[in-house]
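User: My collaborator sent over this chain with a note saying "see what the structure looks like." That's all I know about it. Can you take a look?
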Amino acid sequence: MNLKQLTERLQSDQLNTLNVLPSPFSDSSHHIVLQKFGDRIEVVKGLRDQAQQSPFWQGIDRLFGVSLSQQIALFETSYPWLAQHTSIRLPRWLETFFNDQGQADAVRSSFLAGQGVQTEQVDQAIVEQLAKHLYSWHQLSNARFGCIQQPQGERQSWPAHLHDYLQTLPEASNWDRQLKQQSLQQLSEQPEAFMPEQFGVIMPDLRWDQFLVADGQLALTDLDAVVFGPVALEWVLLEGLLTEQQARWFLQAYPGRPPILAPVRQVYRAVLSQLQVFGEQNAQAWLDLPTWFD
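Assistant: Without extra context I'll predict from the sequence alone. Here is the result:
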C-alpha cells in the first residue's frame, strides 16, 4: 500500500494524531506511522508497494518458503512467543490489518521508547545483551527450517535450496564469478556440512538498525524476517556486523559454543551478499570480510 492509503485506513472516531516516520532506507519494507491517543502511542507498520519484490524478500521466499505478507499474518502468535524467549524488549502485538484479497499488509504494535543504535556507540554491555538474546533464540530448535509457526523445510533439502539460490547470483564481474563458483563448489563437495541436526530461530537481516536502546537496555523492533534456519548463517552475518573487539565480547558472553564456520562460510557469505543484507555491496566486499569466529 502507499502512505496515503495507510493514513486513510487509520482515520478513527477516537481523537488521535498521526506522525509519519521517515524511512531510513530507500528500500524499506514498510511505512511507519506513530498513532497517538492521548498519552498512549501505538506503532503501525504498513507494507509498501513492491516490498515483497525486493532482493531480500525474494531470497527469503526462495530459501525459507515464506513471504513478508505471510510473516505479518503470523505476528499475533509469533510476537508473544518470541517475547517469552528473550531478555530484551520486544513490541507487543495489538492488531493485524488485511487487504481486500485477505492478505496481511499492516501490523499495529506497542511503542517502545529508545534511540536508534549507532554502530560507533555499541559498547560491551550492548554486545553482551545481543549475545544472550541470540543464544536464547538459537536454543528454540526445530528439525525443519522455514516460518517459525510451522516450518516445512526438510533438513536434507537445505543444500538443494542453497544450490538453487546460488544459481541466481550475478556474474557481472570476476569477483562475482569467483564468489558464485567457489560457493557452488564448496556446497557440492561438503553438502553434509549444510545439514545441521537442528535449526534455530535466526534473523537473516540482523543489523543494528533493527534495535533501539534506552537506559542501556536493548530492544528489538523489527521481527519481520525471523525464521527457523541454520544458526551458522547468523554467525557468518555477525562477522560482517561486529568489529574485532565486539566479536571478542560476543564470544565471551555467548553461553554456548559457536558452530564450525569454515566449511560453510563462503556459501553463507554468498547468500548474504545476494540478499543485500547490508545494502548493495559488491562480491569483493563479502570475500574480504574478516573471520572472527575460527
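A starting point for your reply to your collaborator: The mean pLDDT is 91.
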